Amino acid sequence: MLTITGPRYRLCENFSRRGFLKIGALSMGAWQLSLADILRAEQQSGTSAPHKGVINVFLGGGPPHQDMWDLKMEAPSEIRGEFQPIKTNVPGIDICEVFPRMAQLMDKSVLIRSVVGSEGRHDAFQCMTGWTTRDLVSLGGRPSVGATAAKLLGPVNPSVPPFVGLAAKTRHTPWSDSGKPGFLGAAFAPFKPDGPGMANMKLNGITLERLQSRRALLGNLDRLRRDIDADGSIAALDSNTQSAFNILTSSKLVEALDLSKESDKVRERYGDGKPYKFQYDGAPTCNEQFLMARRLIEAGARCVTLSYGRWDSHSKNFDLVRDHGSKLDQALSALIEDLDVRGMLDDVTVAVWGEFGRTPRVNKNAGRDHWPKVSGALLAGGGMRTGQVIGATNRLGEYAERRPVHFQEIIATLYRNLGIRTESTTITDPTGRPQFVSDVGPISEIV
Q1: 447 falls within a domain
Q2: How many separate domains does the chain show?
């Protein structure tokens, strides 16, 4: 939003600078903040960290672990299901037949077959924070990885928000959670380019020339008050307002969101994920968001989150996995290959997972029901020791039989790959107490 007042304002001692010019109000959670406000908070956090990135892909609904990364061929047919395993390019690691492209990228990936600690809720919270929804709820809750990175590391580029959420709005709204700021407050919520923020980036029809003239007029008015600014507040506001102008007038973020800048060949490799099937109250299988995530990280974002598909397969589980899985295979493999070719894979971590797994036994509707006891995840890139499997479930896929991996360990690994040391890094909560970003360390086998 760009608001310029008319000539009714008089230059008098009660003139409101904020009333004169409000630039770049972005939708951040339930709050409307100006870009200057956001940048002021980010400025306080510092920007010295190297540019590492995370792309966190949430498979909302609970993907079936035993039909993706952990097939159980020795189990009875009512548990085993319909799929056959295929070999990957890492000897001894097999995955489901609907992922032939990912099978050839297993050397760049890590499979975790023993994810534990789910509280069994149908939402993205644990995949975004590692914590349960009960943790520090009285203070606003735990912040997500993206919000924490924005707070501790700040922006890489003043024209690109450090935390971007691409999740499309879903009828079951918890599946479209891009990562809450928790007790950090709305200044560290994700930028949502599909909301009012994107319209703001386009200046609502205001030309750059007109914007520059307003800036010049604002500067003239500010000079009237500069002599009485004993504490330097005007200078600080100038700096943040200038940064807000930079974001609105720079093409960097808008171009990152504009997929027409990519060649047809690249876009075809990712695909579009259409037609959207089995969506119901969940997210679409929007493959283009994987390409957009890569472009945003390349432009300077630190954390990009998205929600992909609706995996709540109480019926027609195998039809759903054939549809969603094959589309995910195309988009995810294109992303990993793209990051690798561009020399970004060691610096960017890709995480793909859901809130829980599915029941070992197939129900009467050819579906699988909720199973919080264990689930699976895939990680790629990030400079990790890839080409391996962590953990194992028992013969029926019921529980973690070897090396259980908690949600927090995966989140701690994402923090570590961003350059944030979980064993020593704290954030001050609203009561003034330091809070560790994780109670555990990263997955030792891969970092």
Answers
A1: no
A2: 2
CATH assignment at residue 55: 3.40.720.10
Assess contact for 114 and 374: CB atoms under 8 A.
yes
Strand partners, 436: 426
Joined together, the tokens standing for residue 385 give 């020791």
In the block, which residue shows the tokens 């002021």?
40
What range defines the domain where residue 32 resides? 2-44+199-249
The residue among 401, 412, 411, 313 whose CA lies nearest residue 114 is 401
33 and 78 housed in the same domain: no
How far does Cα 88 stand from its chain's mean position? 27
In 344-383, where does DSSP find H-type helix?
A: none
319 residue type, one letter:
D
The rounded distance, in Å, linking the Cα atoms of 231 and 254 is: 36
- Looking at every residue in the chain, the average pLDDT score rounds to 86
Can you give the pTM of this predicted structure?
0.83
CA atoms of 447 and 444, how far apart (whole Å): 6
Sort 232 into a burial class: Cβ within 10 Å, 0-12 / 13-18 / 19+: exposed
Instruction: Say whether 187 sits in a helix, a strand or coil.
Output: helix
Amino acid, single-letter form, for residue 114 = S
Distances (CA, A) of 15 to 22, 37, 178, 231, 235: 14, 20, 39, 19, 18
Can you read off the two tokens belonging to residue 78?
């009512």
Pair (173, 296) in one structural domain: yes
Tens of pLDDT, residues 353-403: 999 999 999 999 999 999 999 999 999 999 999 999 999 999 999 999 999
CB atoms within 10 A of CB 391: 22
Handedness of CA 390, 109, 170, 361 (dihedral sign): negative
Report the pLDDT value the prediction gives residue 49, as an integer from 0 to 100. Answer: 45
3-state secondary structure (DSSP) of residue 46: coil
**64 and 177 both lie in a single domain:** yes
